[in-house]
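User: Structure with S-adenosylmethionine, tokens only please.
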Amino acid sequence: MRIGAIASVRLMHAGNINLRYRPPDCRAAGLGRLGTEGRMTVETKVSTKYEPEELWFPCSLDIMGWDEHFHNLMLNDRLRMAVYKKAVKNAIEPGMAVLDLGTGTGILARWALEAGAARVYGIEVSRKILDIAEANLAQAGVADRFTPINDLSYNVELPEKVDIIVSEIIGNIGDNEDCAPILADARDRFLKPGGTMLPQRLTPYFVPVASPATNAQIQRGVCKSISAEQDLQVLLDRLGVADPCEVYYDVVIPRSRHLAEPLAGRTLDFFSDGGETAYSFSLTFTATADGEVTGIKGYFIAQLTDRDVLDISGDDPVSGTASDSWKHCYMPLARPLRVKAGDRIRLDVERWPEKNESSAFAFRYRWRAEVLGDGA
Ligand SMILES: C[S@@+](CC[C@H](N)C(=O)[O-])C[C@H]1O[C@@H](n2cnc3c(N)ncnc32)[C@H](O)[C@@H]1O
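Assistant:
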């Protein structure tokens, strides 16, 4: 049995991120550069443009460290902005009370207020970013109907129940910003009976891919980032990870690199899910071509409203079908898997919460892949 990569993640409310892992066999894998202490080193280069198959800093692993650069990236993500703007305008009816959970720079709140919402409560854990939201909404002339709340949503009480909860706390495989428990808690405590969630539901998809170019960047120890604050080596040190193959990355992987048809993971239904944080599932793909599986590509398709679908599977940054901020999720395999057309490839994904009472975002992921055979 050939086994791929293992990654486990824990995001602490205090801003620490720890990753407990099995010590990887970097030398056997032949990946990454070995530093003086025998561990991997990675250089992060700041850039504003990206190309397909470029290795980018995994933004969802550093939620508490997001700064203006990342918010600017999101605000300039044409795909995200176009679909969300249409969805908010479609969902908001005049006079509605709205919760914008994770309001960030206040863009969803602004669209909701411009669409006629009576008032918007904007919850945001970062004081610095919430200050920007307040300034933006004042400039737009709608600040009098906006109530900023600087806290983690779990700690908040609202003075009333709302008609709709809008949010964009989605990671590129769905729950890798912990949206499931956060939105379940908010829905149960803040939403009127019969109220609406935006997004409504989301399905992650996974597909084995051949992207030696991406793994070569891991081997060279080169990763790109939008800001010097997002340094992969700093993140890996904070996580306690020696092998860069132990984490996933933000990478646009073109469809031409797929070695099978994508399969759906677990759908999150924000109207009914209990916010489960522990699960495991297996997917069995059939290889559509001979090749070497270097990693697993993950992405999501989200139903924002009855009419609006956000699909980040696209792969063209120039025409804007790829998402600038999400890209895709790339889960590298330390040891690529050689497959023949017709082979079955099994992927096991596991997610579970960590037992730590002081932790608000506490979860770990593990994935592994193996070839079951059957090919010609
Ligand atoms: C992906 S950003 C989106 C910001 C904004 N809604 C937008 O669409 O541009 C998510 C924001 O939610 C905040 N956030 C995530 N989970 C939160 C929580 N449980 N409570 C409060 N803020 C949260 C983060 O700090 C971040 O600013």
